[in-house]
Amino acid sequence: MKLLDAFEAAFSGQAYKHRSSTVGNALSLTVFEDLYDLGRSRAYVEGVESRELVVNTENKVTGRKMRRGDGTFGERLVSVEPALVSGFGVARGKTADVRIGVEVKILATAMIKQIDRVIGDLRKQARQFESVTPGAISIGVVGVNHAEAYRSYEGPDRFYDKPGRTGPAPASEAADAIARLRDGSTGAADAFDEFLVLDFSAANKEPFPFRWVRYAETTNAYAAALQRVSQTCQQRYVR
Q1: Which end of the chain is more exposed for a tag (fewer CB within 10 A), N or C?
Q2: Sign of the C-alpha dihedral, residues 193, 4, 57, 49?
Q3: Rounded CA separation 188/100 (Å)
Q4: Strands, DSSP E only, in 49-118?
Q5: Which residue range(s) make up the domain with 201?
Q6: Which ranges constitute the DSSP H helices of the chain?
Q7: Does residue 109 contact residue 202 with C-beta atoms inside 8 Å?
Q8: Are 76 and 53 in contact, with CB atoms under 8 Å apart?
Q9: Residue 101 forms beta bridges with which residues?
Q10: Contact 59, 71 (CB under 8 A)
Q11: Residue 207: is the preceding peptide bond cis (ω within 30°)?
Q12: Count of structural domains, the chain
């Protein structure tokens, strides 16, 4: 599955820079590719192959004010030709609506310190997809680190190790962070049609190892989410 492969590649063998604004966008693109590869919604596949449905990498809908999410998929603007990028099956272009919206967050360290902001951002983005196109399918993806130690980089010569004076190790916060994300009254999970937690372990130190926590469970949860989104596409949105 492309999402899981791309997520692992963001950490494995290289330093993860938590301030990068492009990681979420890149991961979101793989969700649309996985839906296409799955092929469970004929309407989705036909829309993609006819180039009537495209990914909008600008993450905004033409003529509508929109808080940019990480991934936006919708009906292609007929006045603009779509572009197909090598290695991808879903074309890219400007869109007139939002059929599927994806928001990605990665909690690699300092989870509890930022959890309220992360939950707030997730909920705002889910509402944004719905407000731009009522009935838009929203998908939330949150990576949660379970490493016993972690190094965060703030510049070429500046880094912080945890546990330490800057805070605890990710492993000591992961369970609490997940519980708060999934809390039915104050969390983020209920704001999305599908909400996926990716449990992983990455210390972010040379040689930059990466491992999945409960890989089979994560794979099955993602597969189930893709199947349900495909069913919804077939029934409701994608023609």
Answers
A1: C
A2: negative
A3: 17
A4: 53-55, 71-75, 100-107
A5: 2-237
A6: 2-9, 23-38, 42-49, 111-132, 174-182, 215-232
A7: no
A8: yes
A9: 72, 138
A10: yes
A11: yes
A12: 1
